[in-house]
Design goal:
9 strands; 3-stranded antiparallel β-sheet; 6-stranded mixed β-sheet
C-alpha cells in the first residue's frame, strides 16, 4: 500500500504518486484498495506501533524462566545477574531432599516505565538423589500443570489474551564446567524437556576452566545433543533485522557464562565480577564469558519469540494431545455413567417386578412342560396310528388275496359244471 511517511527525495515522491494514480485509475484495483493521498502531518496510522507498545505495557508483560541444574551450580546467582537485581533466595541448599522440588516465585520488575511480571522457577535437589532416572518427573509434571492451568483459563474465557500465563517460556539448563560431555541424567532430562519448553544449554562457572578446555567442552556437549536427537532452542534467523546476531549466537551454543553478586571497582567503574588472586573476571565483559550475549538473546532480542514459540509449538502440541485425552476420558466417563444408570434401572425393575417376573417364569415353565407332554402324546398317537394303518393295509392285502383266491375257485367250479352239462343227456320218456 501507500507509505504515508514523508519521503526524503522529490523524485521518489513523484514516482510513488504516479504509481498510486495509475493504480487508482485501474477499476479492479480501486474496488479492492482505498488509496490514501499523502498528507502532512498524516492521518495517524504510523502511531499503531506506539499503541501496541502502550497496550503491552498496560497489560504487564509476563515472562517465566526456569533454572535447572545440580545443586551449587549457580542458578540463583545467574538469575540475579541477568536482571541486575537480588531476588529472595529461600532455597534450602540441601543435598538431602528425597526428590526434586520445583519452587516458583513471581516478581514485578520495572525499567523505564516498562513493567514485566517475571516468574522464576527453580528446581531444587536436582542430581542429588542416588536414584536419578526419575529426577525429571517433578519438572515435567510442573510444566504440564502450568499448561493445564492455561488451558482451563482458555476454555473458560473468550478473551485469550487475558489468561494469566504461568507457562515456562524458557528453561536454562545449567551444565557443570567439569567433565566430559553430558552426564546420563543430563541426556535423559533434556530428552523429556525439549518438546515441552524452549531449552537452552548453558555452561555455568566457565571461569573454572581454560579457554581451550571450554572450546572442547562446548564441542563435546553439542555433539552429545545432536547424537541423541535433542532439539534445543535455536534463535530465529528468518527476521532479517536480527538474523545476523541470532546466527552468530546459535554458533556459540552452549553459552559459557560467569555470574556474580559481588561488585568490584575496575578503573573508574563498579562492575559485577569475581575476584581471584590472579585477576578479576568481569561478568558483563564479552571477552571473559558469554553472559552478555545470553542476556541480550533472552531479553533484548528474542523474548517475544520465546513466548510465541511456547504458545504456537509447545503449548499447541500439548493442547491437542490433552484435548484428545480429555475426549477419551469424557467418552469413558459417559459410557461408565450409562452403564451405571442401566444397572440402577435393572435393579429397580427387579425390585419392582421381581415377583411378577418369577410368576411369568413359572408360567413359562409350566407351558414348556405342557408343550413337552403334548408333544410326547402326539408322537405316541402318531406311532399308534401308523401301526394301525400298517395293520389295516395288511388286512386289506389279505382280504384281496382271499377275494382273488375265491374268485379263481369259483371260476374253476363253473368250468367243471359246463363240462358235465355236455355229457349229460336228459332222460327220454317212454312212449
Amino acid at each position: 500500500l501507500l507509505d504515508l511517511s514523508s519521503s526524503s527525495g522529490a523524485e521518489e515522491t513523484d514516482a510513488k504518486q504516479t504509481d498510486t494514480e495509475e493504480k487508482a485509475e485501474d477499476p479492479v484495483y480501486a474496488d479492492i484498495v482505498r488509496v490514501l493521498r499523502p498528507a502532512d502531518p498524516g492521518v495517524g496510522i504510523e502511531w499503531l506501533a506506539q499503541q501496541y507498545v502502550r497496550r503491552v505495557v498496560a497489560d504487564h508483560y509476563s515472562f517465566n524462566v526456569m533454572l535447572l541444574g545440580q545443586t551449587g551450580v549457580g542458578k540463583s546467582t545467574l538469575i540475579d545477574s541477568l536482571f541486575r537485581a537480588h531476588f529472595l533466595d529461600d532455597s534450602t541448599r540441601s543435598h538431602r531432599l528425597s526428590r526434586v522440588e520445583v519452587v516458583a516465585n513471581r516478581y514485578e520488575l520495572c525499567e523505564n516505565d516498562v513493567r514485566i511480571d517475571l516468574g522464576v522457577i527453580e528446581c531444587r535437589g536436582f542430581d542429588d538423589q542416588l536414584t536419578k532416572d526419575k529426577s525429571y518427573e517433578p519438572i515435567v509434571d510442573y510444566i504440564n500443570k502450568q499448561m493445564d492451568i492455561y488451558l482451563e483459563e482458555e476454555l473458560k474465557t473468550t478473551h485469550r489474551d487475558k489468561c494469566k500465563d504461568t507457562r515456562v517460556h524458557v528453561c536454562l539448563y545449567l551444565i557443570s564446567p567439569v567433565g566430559h560431555g553430558l552426564k546420563a541424567i543430563d541426556l535423559v532430562t533434556m530428552k523429556e524437556l525439549y518438546a515441552k519448553c524452549n531449552l537452552i544449554p548453558v555452561i555455568a562457572k566457565s571461569d573454572l576452566i581454560t579457554e581451550q578446555e571450554m572450546h572442547d567442552r562446548k564441542r563435546k556437549i553439542m555433539a552429545d545433543i545432536e547424537d541423541n536427537g535433542i532439539a534445543i532452542y535455536r534463535f530465529p534467523i528468518d527476521d532479517l533485522e536480527v538474523a545476523a546476531i541470532n546466527a552468530k549466537s546459535n554458533a556459540k551454543l552452549p553459552f559459557a557464562v560467569v555470574a556474580s553478586n559481588d561488585f568490584v571497582t575496575v578503573g573508574q567503574r563498579e562492575v559485577r565480577a569475581r575476584q581471584y588472586p590472579w585477576g578479576t573476571v568481569e561478568v558483563e565483559n564479552e571477552s571473559h564469558s558469554d553472559f552478555t550475549r545470553l542476556r541480550d538473546m533472552l531479553l533484548r532480542v528474542n523474548m517475544n519469540h520465546l513466548k510465541e514459540t511456547t504458545h504456537s509449538q509447545h503449548y499447541e502440541l500439548y493442547r491437542s494431545e490433552r484435548l484428545d485425552q480429555l475426549l477419551i476420558e469424557t467418552q469413558t466417563k459417559h459410557y461408565s455413567e450409562l452403564n451405571r444408570i442401566e444397572s440402577e434401572l435393572v435393579a429397580k425393575y427387579k425390585a419392582k417386578f421381581g415377583a411378577k417376573d418369577q410368576e411369568l417364569k413359572n408360567m413359562e415353565r409350566e407351558l414348556h412342560l405342557k408343550s413337552e407332554k403334548w408333544k410326547k402324546m402326539f408322537i405316541e398317537n402318531r406311532d399308534q396310528l401308523e401301526l394301525s394303518r400298517q395293520e389295516l393295509e395288511e388286512s386289506i392285502i389279505n382280504l384281496n388275496m382271499r377275494k382273488q383266491w375265491f374268485k379263481v375257485k369259483m371260476e374253476g367250479n363253473v368250468d367243471k359244471d359246463g363240462k358235465d352239462g355236455k355229457n349229460h343227456k336228459s332222460p327220454k320218456h317212454k312212449k
